Amino acid sequence: MRVLHLSDIHCGHPFVGAHVDGALALARAGGWNAIVVSGDFSQRAREREFRQARELLDALRTFAPVLTVPGNHDTAWWHAPFGVGDASRLHTGYRAWINEDIEPVLRVPGLSIVGLNSSWGMLSAALTWYPRDWRVKGGLTDAQLDRAAAQLAESPADDLRLLVVHHNVVRGNLSRRWGMKRPQLMLDRIAALNVDVVCTGHDHEERVEVVERRTGRFVISAANTLSRRMRGRRASALNIIEATATDVTVSAWTFLDGAFIAGPARATMPRSHAGT
């Protein structure tokens, strides 16, 4: 079982064609059961940016089924600041060009992937008391997490299970920032879902590690950006998820000399449902 995880393409002025070409070359190499893109297709939620991102998605879909979720840059927060206005317009561009469904579920043999929208703009699900967080911070509601639990419960017992959200659920090593409102509660609730891997983006720092909570554990697959907006002068990176009948491994692949190559960052844990 192999899943390719990309994030934060940022079509528009931060777009880097060489990085996208490198990702496409890796996708073209084949052997993928699915491809995940965890948000921020655009830079300013403009139609021309979404149109450019759609071209990439159309290419990726020729190699494997693709699941996407929106990012904060794909969210037109100005339509409903603090809930004033028309919140139904927050994801109009994303729905028109990327996917009508902002919380999709993808099931292929041996694999169940649930996507949740963590990008709420300036609605209460993501708002904190800190102005620095406004428009940037993400969140998940209890109803969303309950729905994800029900969807995952419908999966065959031996499926590899992935959750996909845009915002980082662990604190950034470089940014020192949490991506989610209620971060500790989010970690506990997500761990209780009994997923194998949680795919995120947003923080522009690749992270692959096992997260252990009192409610469970999972491997975090935080993909770096494919744009020029790398944090700390790091190279662009994407992640690869590989699973056997008993274990799941996530590894970060770094862009070097025109191609993505396997880097040292790697995390492995026993699958949540191994042997069931």
Protein described:
By secondary structure, the protein is of the alpha/beta class. It has a single domain, classed as Purple Acid Phosphatase, chain A, domain 2 (4-Layer Sandwich), CATH 3.60.21. 20% of the residues lie in helices and 26% in strands. The chain contains five helices and twelve strands. The strands form two sheets. It has a six-stranded mixed β-sheet. The chain has a six-stranded mixed β-sheet with strand order 4-5-6-7-9-8. The protein is globular, with a radius of gyration of 17 Å. The two termini are 17 Å apart. The mean pLDDT is 96. This is Putative metallophosphoesterase. GO terms for molecular function: hydrolase activity; metal ion binding.
Describe how the helices and strands are arranged.
Layout: E1 2-6, H1 17-28, E2 34-37, H2 47-60, E3 66-68, H3 92-97, E4 105-108, E5 111-115, H4 142-153, E6 160-164, H5 183-192, E7 197-200, E8 207-213, E9 216-222, E10 237-243, E11 247-256, E12 259-270
Parallel strand pairs: 1-2, 2-3, 5-6, 6-7, 7-9
Antiparallel strand pairs: 1-10, 4-5, 8-9, 10-11, 11-12
Domain Calcineurin-like phosphoesterase: 1-205
GO molecular function: hydrolase activity; metal ion binding
Protein name: Putative metallophosphoesterase
